[in-house]
């Protein structure tokens, strides 16, 4: 039985013959990589494939504009690449993330898929490389060494602008709304996990909203760096085998297509030998994760109880919390966010390590940078949106916080300017030993009038900025 009868076709590349599944749009180089890297089930995400397809599409348009590509071939490449952008050919991108460090295998995966689909569109034979060649036509004016870094930046930009920033803005608005709703709820502040002077619950949520607001600013700053792309440097940054106007024109087209700024770097040697912009962007994601971790943990602590904990807020009850304890309800949404944050910390550590692997003229950990950066952005976007809709918007303040304020020992802080630090400390310690309130002991131990005590121990006044 022939190979064709067994469901394979024979393709050839520079290393010889390769058996490729008959129904595959990819070709010989992709098949070799598929066999060489059976490492994991991790594949490049949709955003990355979308970006890669768009680069190939606009490259064909620009090469035609420059008189370097026949119109008929250009049209077929554009049609095929558009299918890649739209996700219609995702099942043809079969390679493991853990592969050649430049991402050459995935670049060739795209070249071969687009080439073969274009050949079909033109009525040719899949795998023939005629009339559309994966290298000579689809990859014209390009190298994996500038295309893959460009796809990383472009896909991350799209994910940031379309997913992460809208999700964070929604969370910020929800936190700001809770800050207004809880503005009159005076409770005990805490430092070092110990009782401190009073604070309003609304002020705590105002702080959370401020963290997210500044996180958005940091993400936007990181996006500015991602707008600068390596396209045009080809192999080592010198731009060999590409037209001098190629990259700038492709960037202009990509900018128009996606409504974001994409610009050719002014220094191709740094853009390909290092991935500092991706490392910086990952740092911004880690900072957002740190904010979300703090906010989620505070929410969990303030809601702990409902009888034996703080129970200052009530969280939405979403699902049973125990297989053995009837009626138990857990802060599951906040818990899920903390796990996302832990994953982002790990992704960032991987990207930092990968970022220093720019050996001479090329970073050789591009695929893992792409995977982890996009994973960070996606996880943070999804977790932020879920935290907003399934937790924050449903939080209610309880009476527990205000009830404990009068019993708070750190109300003694307000007495210090009048009676001195040492005397105020004595009153606080005696209040703890006896169970009396600061107000009660201040009446006994000082000559402060009732009116003065009312003024000094006004918890609401102590929260005014």
Q: What would you say this structure looks like, in words?
A:
This protein folds into 3 domains: 28-124 and 131-140, Fumarase/aspartase (N-terminal domain) (Fumarase C, Chain B, domain 1); 146-230 and 269-400, Fumarase C, Chain A, domain 2 (Up-down Bundle), CATH 1.20.200.10; 406-462, Ribonucleotide Reductase Protein R1, domain 1, CATH 1.10.40. Helices cover 58% and strands 8% of the residues. It contains 18 helices and 10 strands. The strands form 5 sheets. A two-stranded antiparallel ribbon has the order 1-2. Strands 3-4 form a two-stranded antiparallel sheet. A two-stranded parallel sheet has the order 5-6. Strand 3 (186-191) and strand 4 (194-200) form a beta hairpin. The protein is elongated and about 100 Å long.
* Overall morphology: elongated
- Helix and strand content put the structural class at mainly alpha
| Order of the strands making up the biggest sheet | 1-2
For the residues shown, what is the average pLDDT? 97
Radius of gyration over all CA atoms, rounded: 30 Å
H-E order? EEHHHHHHEEHEHEHHEHEEHEHHHHHH
What is the makeup of the main sheet?
Answer: 2 strands, antiparallel
CATH structural architecture of the largest domain: Up-down Bundle
In short:
This protein is mostly helical and 465 residues long.
Secondary-structure blueprint:
Elements: E1 8-13, E2 16-21, H1 28-36, H2 46-65, H3 71-86, H4 104-121, H5 134-138, H6 144-181, E3 186-191, E4 194-200, H7 201-226, E5 228-229, H8 246-258, E6 263-264, H9 268-273, H10 276-302, E7 313-314, H11 332-355, E8 358-359, E9 362-363, H12 366-390, E10 396-397, H13 400-405, H14 416-419, H15 421-434, H16 438-445, H17 450-456, H18 459-462
Parallel strand pairs: 5-6
Antiparallel strand pairs: 1-2, 3-4, 7-10, 8-9
């Amino acid at each position: 039985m022939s190979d064709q009868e067994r469901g394979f076709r024979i393709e050839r590349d520079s290393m010889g013959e390769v058996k490729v599944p008959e129904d595959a749009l990819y070709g010989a180089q992709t098949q070799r990589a598929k066999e060489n890297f059976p490492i994991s089930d991790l594949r490049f995400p949709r955003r990355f494939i979308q970006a890669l397809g768009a680069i190939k599409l606009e490259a064909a348009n620009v090469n035609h504009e420059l008189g370097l590509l026949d119109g008929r071939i250009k049209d077929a490449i554009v049609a095929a690449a558009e299918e890649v952008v739209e996700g219609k050919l995702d099942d043809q991108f079969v390679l493991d993330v853990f592969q050649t460090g430049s991402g050459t295998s995935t670049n060739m995966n795209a070249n071969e898929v687009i080439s073969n689909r274009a050949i079909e569109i033109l009525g040719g034979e899949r795998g023939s490389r005629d009339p559309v060649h994966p290298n000579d036509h689809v990859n014209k004016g390009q190298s994996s060494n500038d295309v893959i870094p460009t796809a990383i930046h472009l896909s991350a930009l799209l994910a940031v602008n379309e997913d992460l920033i809208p999700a964070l803005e929604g969370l910020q608005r929800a936190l700001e709304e809770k800050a207004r709703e809880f503005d009159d709820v005076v409770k005990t502040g805490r430092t070092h996990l110990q009782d401190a002077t009073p604070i309003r619950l609304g002020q705590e949520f105002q702080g959370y909203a401020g963290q997210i607001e500044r996180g958005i600013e940091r993400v936007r700053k990181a996006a500015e760096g991602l707008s600068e792309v390596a396209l045009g440097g080809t192999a080592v940054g010198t731009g060999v085998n590409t037209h001098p106007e190629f990259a700038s024109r492709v960037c202009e087209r990509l900018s128009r297509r996606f409504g974001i700024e994409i610009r050719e770097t002014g220094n191709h040697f740094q853009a390909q030998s290092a991935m500092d912009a991706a490392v910086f962007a990952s740092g911004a994601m880690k900072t957002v994760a740190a904010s979300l971790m703090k906010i989620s943990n505070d929410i969990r602590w303030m809601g702990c109880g409902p009888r034996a904990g703080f129970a200052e807020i009530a969280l939405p009850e979403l699902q049973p919390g125990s297989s053995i304890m009837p009626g138990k309800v857990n802060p599951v949404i906040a818990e899920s966010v903390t796990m996302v944050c832990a994953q982002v910390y790990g992704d960032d550590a991987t990207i930092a390590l990968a970022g220093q692997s720019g050996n001479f003229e090329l970073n050789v950990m591009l695929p893992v940078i792409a995977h982890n950066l996009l994973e960070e952005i996606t996880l943070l976007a999804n977790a932020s949106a879920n935290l907003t809709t399934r937790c924050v918007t449903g939080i209610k303040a309880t009476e527990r916080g205000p009830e404990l304020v009068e019993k708070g020992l750190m109300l003694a802080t307000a007495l210090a300017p009048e009676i001195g630090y040492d005397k105020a400390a004595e009153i606080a310690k005696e209040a703890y030993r006896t169970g009396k309130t600061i107000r009660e002991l201040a009446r006994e131990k000082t000559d402060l009038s009732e009116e003065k005590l009312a003024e000094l121990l006004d918890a609401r006044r102590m929260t005014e900025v």
